[in-house]
Specification:
The protein has about 70 residues and is mainly alpha-helical. Helix content is about 90%, strand content about 0%. The termini are far apart. About 0% of the residues are buried.
Length: about 70
């Protein structure tokens, strides 16, 4: 092989190596974000359940405490 082709081949190998590293780094970030989204989604679901329980617990208390004004 002549020097020009060898230089081009080495450059392509270097670029491929850099791309492989970049793709792996991006994959790691995406996997981390997926775990974080999953955890946040579970947290939101827990908060929804707590809110439902709190509403059910307080709705009967509130409705019994609220009286209509005499003019209604």
């Amino acid at each position: 092989m002549n020097d020009s082709l060898m230089t081009r081949l080495e450059r392509l190998e270097a670029l491929y190596s850099e791309q492989e590293y970049t793709v792996q780094a991006l994959n790691d970030v995406v996997a981390s974000q997926d775990r974080e989204i999953t955890n946040l989604t579970l947290g939101i679901e827990r908060l929804k359940e707590q809110l439902k329980a709190l509403r059910a617990e307080t709705s009967s208390d509130i409705s019994s405490e609220i009286e209509k004004p005499p003019h209604y």
